[in-house]
Structures are given as C-alpha cells and as structure tokens.
Design brief:
The complex is a heterodimer of chains A (252) and B (256). Chain A is α/β, with parallel strands linked by helices. Chain A is 36% helix and 25% strand. Chain A has a single domain, classed as Rossmann fold. Chain A contains nine helices and ten strands. In chain A, α4 crosses α5. Chain B has 256 residues and is an all-alpha fold. In chain B, 86% of the residues lie in helices and 0% in strands. In chain B, α2 runs parallel beside α5. The chains are: A alpha/beta (252), B mainly alpha (256). The site of magnesium ion (MG) has 4 residues of chain A, from α1.
Chain lengths: 252, 256
C-alpha cells in the first residue's frame, strides 16, 4: 500500500512487535504502529480483535508479553510508578463506556484527574479548568448532575471533557461513537476534531465509524489477526483490493 | 475429579484472598491516605447497617429473654436471667449477628459497586488518572468496615440488653437501674475484650472479601451479580470460621 508523503514530524508513539496473550488466546502477535505529532490515526478491526488491548498497553493498563512501547520518547514498560503517572498526565484516554464515576457528580468527575499529588492545583484554577472543558463540550449546565442523569451522548462528552482537562498531548479514543445514534455520533466526531485543533493533540482513534474514517483520520491502520495488516489513507482503503479491507468497507 | 477441582478452586481462592489481604497491609499506612473517602465509606456503611442491626439486636435480646425464662424458672434461677442474657449477647450473639448482617448488606453492596466499576472501566480510568484505585477504593473500604464493625457491635450489645429488660418487664417489674447493675456485675473483661477483638477481625473479613470480589469481577453484568452474591457467601463462612478460631484462642488463654 502506498504510504502518503508527509513532512518529517516528531514521532510521539512507537509500538513495536507487540505480543499479548490471555492464556491460549493470542490477541496481539507482533503489532507495529507509529503516531506522529498532530496526526490522527484510526485503528480498524473486528470486535474482539484486540484494539482495546492495544491502547491499554500504550498507557500500561496491560503489560504486553513482548514488544516495545515508546511514548513521547520514553520506554513505557521500563518506567517506575511515579514516572508512569507523570507520563500518563500527557496522555488522555477516552474509555469505550465513558467510564464516568457513578458515585460522583460531573464536577467531581472532572476534578478527579487533578487530584494528582504533585499538581496541587489551586481551588480557583480547578474551577476555571472545569469551566473551560465544560464550555468546550457545551455542557456547562450539567455540573451538579450525576452520570445516571445524562444521556449516552452527554456521557461521552463529559468523558471527553475529563480526558482533556489535563491538556494531554496525545489522546487515545476507544470507540468514541459506538453505541450512539448516527447524528450524535457525527457530533462527537466534529467535537473531537474541534478539540483537537483547540488543544493541538495527536490521537489514536479506535472506531468502525465511516464518519471517523472520512472526517478525522489522516491515516488508517487495519488490525487483523494480531498484526497491522495494512495502513493508508481513506482513499487508499477505498481503492484497496485486499479482501479483508473490502469486507470492512462494505459494512461501513 | 470434580471433588479435586472443587478443592483446587477453593485453595486458589483462599490464596488469592490472602494475597489481597497482604496487599492491603502493604498499603494500609501509606502516606497518601484517602481520608475523605474513608470518612465517606464509614458514614455510608455505619448508617446503612444501623437500622437493621438495631432491629435484629432488639429482637434477639427480647426473644432470648422470653425463651430462657421458663427453663431458668424451673431451677428457681430466674434472678440469673439478666446475667445469662448479657453474657450470651456480649460474647457471641451480638458480634456474630452484627457481622452476618453486615456481610449481607455491606459485603454485597461492595461486591456490586466495585464490580460494576470494574466492568465499566471506572477502575481503569482511576488508574490512568494517577490515583491508585487499590488505595482509593479498597484500602478505605477495608479500614471502614474494620473500624465500624466493633462500633456497631457495641450498639447491638446495648440495644439487645435493653430489649432483654423490656422482655423481663413483660411479666415482672424490674427497674432499669437494678437490671443494669445485674448485667454489669455479671460481665467480666474476659467476656468483653475477646468479643471486641473478634469484631475487628469480622469487619476486616467483610471488607477484604467484598473488595476482593469486586476487584476480580468477570466482564459482563452477570459478573457483577455473581460478585455480590459470592461476597456474601464467602464473608459469612469466613465469619463463622474466625469465630471458631476466636473461641479456641479465648479458651486456651483461659478467658472463659
Ligand atoms: N483482561 C482480559 N483478560 C482476558 N482476556 C481479555 C482481557 N482483555 C481482553 N481480553 C480478550 O482479548 C481479546 C481482545 O479484546 P479487546 O481488545 O477488548 O477487543 P476489541 O478489539 O473489541 O476492543 C478478546 O478476545 C478478549 O476476550
Ligand atoms: Mg474494545
């Protein structure tokens, strides 16, 4: 597949020869991926193919059995807990289910990432940050609500706000539009793009959504049988005669 | 074969539970302690179980009194009633009943709450937010049940003894000061301290089992239900088991 010419940019994530198995279930079998600054890479793959496992390895929620993960020039697997926590501030993670804390209000949810002991954010500053991200996702009125009072799309927005409150350089999105109706899904994609420009982030977006592929992705990587099968632009994928790629595009 | 598998599973579970408890001790006195969450949990657990513990203690005290009276009367030992009820309540009934109620109420809610946090990735979200979920969620909950249970047991003691006085007064009239004096004359430190000590262990068992079940919940909504359910079963069994050990120890120490 033709690689699109791109200006030399700083590489912010490098995943090399990643292997992850759960018992006999070999999920990743030598996966490689690069992410450059300012870029959006979309990762495509069947349900259960290991996409979530991949991005969990990048923030070390899971430890791979073999392989290398480098984020912002640091070897993620070699860091101690404190170094890892410092690195994780620079990486945002939007969970598939939004993962809002049920027992906390929206405000408390947003403040949670600021609890880090070395940040010691002042009260007014915290308030200002919460205001800023709530405004950015257009949900200023939900401050005092609990997650159970929010709709699916609103939860996703608050999840996005919580991810962005520390102004991460990299954001990992796990199926940001899955489970939403097409209109809300499109709104979320547009929001992601808007926030991306506003905060100047680089991101890996796991998705099956055609809107994401068309509107957001600079590059698409197909995760198939544990490996990075093909990579290319949306146009490359449309023109591809790889049967696995075709199968995806029929369904999208 | 099935038997061996059952035994094997039990051994694995016991091992993992002990490791979970060990992890608690390694983190229990960490300098980044989550005081606010501990207070919140103590308030929730304490106030949540108090009504049920209170009602049960009242009924146990009353029933024990009413049912023991005929037997004691046959031996002309009705005056022993306050002492007998007080000793059985303080030594055994209040700690075990309170612990079982809390195993049902707190254990299941912990298993379900932490379990659903686990399956909806809230625990992972805490982890990437730079907050140690074990310290934030498990350590605080285990401390809260460990510290709250003895308090609830003392309340249950008081309520059951008062209920016993109510029971005595159904037939006779005994003044509360007299009843109260008889109760306290009959109780020794050997009755009170071991009961108090074992309450801490019961509380600890409830917290550890509830958190362990929650943290190890399998994916899916059935997983949450299973965690809640097995937290109650395992915690209750563990309470009886600890009670058995406690009895042996008090016996050996001659505190009977
Ligand atoms: N913590 C885990 N323990 C055991 N198996 C897991 C775990 N996480 C994921 N898996 C398995 O790994 C495979 C890939 O999962 P996942 O990455 O969640 O898929 P998806 O591509 O849909 O995000 C699945 O078969 C899943 O059952
Ligand atoms: Mg997934």
């Amino acid at each position: 597949m033709a690689t699109t010419a791109r200006p030399p940019a700083e590489r912010v994530i490098a995943v090399r020869d990643l292997h992850v198995a759960f018992g006999a279930n070999q999920v990743l079998r030598g996966f490689d991926l690069d992410l450059y600054r300012g870029e959006n890479v979309m990762v495509l793959g069947k349900s259960g193919s290991g996409k979530s496992v991949l991005i969990k390895c990048i923030v070390r929620l899971l430890r791979p059995d073999a392989g290398r993960v480098e984020v912002l020039g640091q070897d993620v697997l070699a860091l101690d807990q404190d170094q890892l926590d410092h690195l994780r501030v620079r990486i945002g993670f939007l969970f598939q289910s939004s993962a809002l804390y049920d027992s906390m209000t929206v405000q408390e949810n947003l403040e949670f990432p600021l609890r880090r002991h070395w940040l010691a954010t002042a009260r007014q500053e915290t308030e200002a940050l919460v205001d800023e991200v709530l405004d950015a996702v257009g949900l200023a009125h939900t401050r005092a609500m609990y997650p159970s009072e929010l709709s699916g799309g609103m939860k996703r927005r608050i999840g996005l706000a919580r991810t962005l409150i520390l102004k991460p350089e990299i954001v990992l999105y796990d199926e940001p539009t899955t489970g939403l109706d097409p209109i809300t899904g499109r709104e979320i994609v547009e929001l992601i793009l808007k926030l991306q420009r506003q905060y100047n982030t680089s991101s890996i977006i796991i998705s099956h959504d055609l809107n994401v592929a068309k509107l957001a992705a600079n590059r698409i990587a197909l995760l198939h049988e544990g490996r990075n099968r093909v990579e290319g632009s949306y146009a490359d994928f449309l023109a591809s005669d790889d049967p696995v790629v075709k199968e995806f595009f029929i369904f999208m | 074969m099935a038997e061996r598998n059952g035994f094997h599973a039990l051994a694995v579970e016991a091992g993992e539970l002990s490791m979970f408890a060990g992890r608690f001790f390694r983190n229990a006195f960490h300098r980044r302690f989550e005081w606010r969450e501990l207070l919140r949990q103590a308030a929730i657990n304490g106030s949540g179980s108090l009504p049920l513990v209170g009602i049960t203690a009242f009924i146990m005290g009353l029933v024990l009194t009413v049912q023991s009276r005929p037997t004691l009367a046959r031996f002309g030992a009705e005056s022993m009633l306050p002492a007998m009820v007080a000793i059985s309540v303080v030594r055994e009934i209040a700690p075990v009943i309170t612990a079982l109620i809390c195993a049902g109420k707190i254990g299941s809610s912990m298993g379900a709450e932490l379990g659903s946090m686990k399956v909806t990735e809230q625990i992972d979200a805490m982890e990437v937010s730079g907050t140690n979920p074990f310290r934030y969620l498990a350590v605080t909950r285990i401390w809260s049940t460990t510290l709250m249970l003895p308090v609830l047991v003392v309340l249950a003691d008081a309520i059951a003894i008062w209920a016993s006085w109510v029971g005595v007064n159904i037939r006779d009239t005994v003044s509360w000061p007299l009843f109260y004096r008889q109760v306290f004359d009959s109780l020794e430190y050997g009755d009170i301290l071991p009961a108090f000590a074992k309450s801490y262990f019961f509380g600890f068992a409830i917290g550890v089992v509830g958190c362990y079940k929650g943290f190890t919940t399998a994916k899916g909504t059935e997983g949450v239900g299973r965690s809640a359910h097995s937290a109650v079963v395992v915690a209750s069994l563990l309470i009886f088991f600890l009670d058995l050990i406690a009895v042996q120890i008090t016996d050996l120490l001659g505190l009977t």
